[in-house]
């Protein structure tokens, strides 16, 4: 059985500051060649929830499972990966080249606290699906009152 790497932690650290990210995004809108780091892209993702769990669905077609990494805390999830660029056809004139390659990283803040011990992930047909069990917030417990 193959596994997707999942790492648990309390803090994801601060590898990129928001300031650097916003400057990079500003220059990237002017010209995509401006970039402070290697080429990055943003795969499409959905987050939805049921009464029992939060589900994250990431569209990451063309990425081997070995190139995906998931880190989870009780309030956020970080998904990282790398899609290798396909070899270009020599002597061809590309009229359209929209498929994005390179590394990506997404940090998604979850709508509810989750139980980091109850996590599962699957990868099928280019979609990474992660199931995160919610921590019950309305759980009540009857307390026995003793004498004295």
Helix-strand blueprint:
Elements: E1 5-8, H1 18-30, E2 45-49, E3 53-59, E4 68-72, E5 76-83, E6 102-109, E7 114-124, E8 127-134
Parallel strand pairs: 1-4
Antiparallel strand pairs: 2-3, 3-8, 4-5, 5-6, 7-8
What can you see in these coordinates?
By secondary structure, the chain is mostly beta strands. The chain has a domain at 40-84 and 101-136: Immunoglobulin-like, CATH 2.60.40.790. It has 1 helix and 8 strands. The chain has one helix at 18-30; strands spanning 5-8, 45-49, 53-59, 68-72, 76-83, 102-109, 114-124, 127-134. The longest helix is centred in the N-terminal third of the chain and has 13 residues, at 18-30. Residues 33-37 have low confidence and may be disordered.
């Amino acid at each position: 059985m193959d596994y997707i790497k999942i790492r648990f932690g309390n803090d994801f650290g601060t590898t990129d500051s928001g300031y650097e990210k916003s400057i990079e995004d500003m220059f990237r809108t002017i010209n995509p060649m401006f970039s402070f780091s290697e080429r990055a892209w943003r795969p499409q993702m959905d987050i939805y929830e049921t009464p029992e769990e939060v589900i994250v669905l990431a569209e990451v077609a063309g990425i081997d499972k070995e190139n995906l990494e998931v880190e989870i805390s009780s309030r956020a999830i970080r998904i990282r990966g790398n899609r290798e660029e396909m070899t270009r056809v020599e002597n061809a004139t590309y009229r359209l080249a929209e498929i994005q390659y390179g590394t990506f990283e997404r940090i998604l803040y979850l709508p509810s606290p989750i139980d980091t011990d109850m996590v599962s992930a699957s990868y099928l047909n280019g979609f990474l699906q992660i199931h995160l069990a919610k921590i019950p917030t309305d759980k009540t417990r009857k307390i026995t009152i003793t004498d004295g």
